Amino acid sequence: MTPEQLAQTIDMTLLAPPATRDDVLRLCDAALQWKPASVCVQPIWVRTAVKALEGSGVPVGTVAGFPTGCTMRPVKTQEIRAAVASGATEIDMVVNLGALKSGDWTAVEKELRDLLETARVSGLENGPSPIVTKVILECCYLTDDEKRQGAQMVHDLAADFVKTSTGFAPGGATLEDVRLLREAVGPATGVKAAGGIRDLKTALAMLDAGASRIGTSHAVEILTELAG
Q1: Whole-angstrom Cα distance, residue 38 to residue 84?
Q2: Which of 34, 70, 109, 155 lies deepest, with the highest CB count within 10 Å?
Q3: CA-to-CA distance for 99 and 63, rounded, in angstroms?
Q4: Which tens digits make up the pLDDT trace of 35-50?
Q5: CA end-to-end span of the chain, whole Å?
Q6: Is 92 annotated in the active site?
């Protein structure tokens, strides 16, 4: 795999709360060099990143209901609308963890259906680019059965990706979870591994396990390591 090929599987991520405008611009400078799958920043920085990457072909993504998934549905939908209106074309949304852990799968499905529809409609209203949707399960809190059921729901509702983790919980991506999610969703739905991916060996192992996208704040180090 070449650095260019690997970059196309990576979301260059900067979600640290104290990140500054200069930090975001440095991320965008790196993205202009490496041409990743996307950059992912906090909602307040979407417009900054969109302007910095204008004309580059690098999409800008952001998060909704992040990192707990416990904000109310109207708040999550408004986050998505505002993000898309600001120029984001990829949305990583956190599942309703409280409902999921309570076994209230009806509530989980209703919210996900609403959020995904909001993303799609907002995309149509704001430009020609479809919105790429990623649903974060936060696997470290879930049983294997909950992971499978959650991933199957993500697949059935036609989200683009199921994602392992926010990177803000006690655990991040594991090879076991990536394999489980890939088995659950099959080949058509993307699997994004995120949380704790800091070196080339781990990134490649995640891809080998079935991930189709890597989320990492260490993208530059990983790509530089591959480039030699």
Answers
A1: 15
A2: 34
A3: 19
A4: 999 999 999 999 999 9
A5: 13
A6: yes
Catalytic residue among 76, 134, 147, 192: 192
Question: Does residue 32 contact residue 53 with C-beta atoms inside 8 Å?
Answer: yes
Per-residue pLDDT of 64-76, as tens digits, reads 999 999 999 999 9
Band the pLDDT of 153: cuts 50, 70, 90: very high
pLDDT for position 137: 98
Q: What angle do CA 116, 87, 64 make, to 5 degrees?
A: 40
CA atoms within 13 Å, Cβ hemisphere of 221: 11
**pLDDT at residue 127 in the model:** 78
Tell me how far apart the alpha carbons of residues 177 and 18 are, in angstroms, rounded to a whole number.
29
**Residue of 11, 134, 163, 177 with catalytic role:** 163
Is residue 192 part of the annotated active site? The answer reads yes
- Going by their DSSP bridges, the two strands 213-216 and 10-14 should be labelled as parallel
Residue 212's alpha-carbon distances to 47, 54, 146, in angstroms, are 27, 25, 21
Query: Is 134 assigned a catalytic role?
Result: no
Name the catalytic one among 11, 76, 92, 160.
Answer: 92
Q: Please report the pLDDT score of residue 129 as a whole number.
A: 79
